[in-house]
Design a protein that fits this description.
CATH class of the largest domain: Alpha Beta
Radius of gyration: 28 Å
Order of helices and strands: HEHEHEHEEEHHEHEHEEHH
Number of strands: 10
Largest sheet: 5 strands, mixed
CATH topology of the largest domain: D-Maltodextrin-Binding Protein, domain 2
CATH superfamily of the largest domain: Periplasmic binding protein-like II
CATH architecture of the largest domain: 3-Layer(aba) Sandwich
Helix content: 25-40%
Length: about 270
């Protein structure tokens, strides 16, 4: 078979294509219309929200494809201080309402505080429970090593209230609160650090949020009487210095709405009071 005529025809097609400005033998090009600019929304969240916020970020990606949540977690008190010092955050999600209120009072946040979640407290002990803690009363026993957090961390404020409530219950010694304080051997930067030390057996017990304890496979829990338990409320605000205030407020509203609540409930958080 003589291939020369075929080759000549192919060359002729290429020449014609180049002369007319139309690429020869080229796949058609898909024309894409203009799209909204993509935004990285920086969210500062309480350490106890870490796992939940990973789930929130995945869920929100399907709600607004133009927004990616960039999550940073630590003690609420530490994050509040960072924002005051100019850290580039868009949204602040705290394990209390006190720290968001501080930002509002200082002019570092805009809008009202949005209460988006609730939690409760429990007592966490290492697997095997080497100290034999079976009741909150045992936290005051001699030789029990308690892992706690710094005074400014929200879990400490809740735990202090819990201890006071327990001390008022029948059957608790009058020295319960003082004995508990004497047993605190470590004050960590946030609640995640409490969990880590108890998991490693570096302490006999720690008061943490229910969601923290349920997320760990390396600990057991000791129930706290409902009459003494302390409800924890999580509040969020839009940081005033944010350059994406509209998107930040939209995310915060979604988090407090049905979509966000469904995700948070999956991680054990309670709905905020209506």
């Amino acid at each position: 078979m003589n291939l020369r005529p075929l080759g000549a025809a192919l060359i002729l097609l290429l020449v014609i294509g180049s002369c007319t400005g139309t690429p020869a033998l080229q796949e058609p090009t898909t024309v894409v219309g203009p799209t909204a600019p993509h935004i990285d929304l920086v969210v500062y969240g309480a350490a106890s929200l870490k796992r939940a916020l990973d789930g929130v970020a995945q869920a929100y990606a399907s709600v607004d494809e133009t927004v990616t949540l960039v999550i940073s977690t630590d003690s609420s008190a530490a994050l509040e201080t960072k924002i005051e010092q100019g850290a580039p955050a868009d949204v602040f999600l705290s394990a209390d309402t006190t720290n968001p209120q501080k930002l509002n009072d200082g002019g570092f946040a805009t809008g009202s505080i949005v209460v988006f979640a609730g939690n409760k407290l429990t007592i966490m002990v290492p697997k095997g429970n080497p100290a034999g803690i079976t009741s909150p009363r045992d936290l005051a026993n001699s030789g029990v090593d308690i892992i706690a957090a710094g005074d400014a961390v929200p879990i400490t404020k809740y735990a202090t209230k819990l201890v006071a409530n327990l001390a008022a219950l029948p059957g608790y010694p009058s020295t319960f609160a003082a004995d508990y304080s004497a047993n605190v051997v470590s004050k960590e930067e946030n609640v995640s650090a409490i969990v880590g030390k108890v998991e490693l057996g570096q302490g006999d017990a720690g008061i943490v949020y229910v969601t923290d304890a349920s997320a760990s496979t390396k600990v057991a829990t000791v129930d706290v009487p409902d009459a003494a338990n302390v409800p924890a409320l999580y509040g969020g605000v839009v940081v005033k210095a944010s350059t994406h205030a509209t998107e930040a407020q939209a995310f915060l509203d979604w988090l407090a709405g049905p979509g966000g609540q469904a995700v948070l409930a999956g991680f054990g958080f309670l709905a905020p009071p209506s």
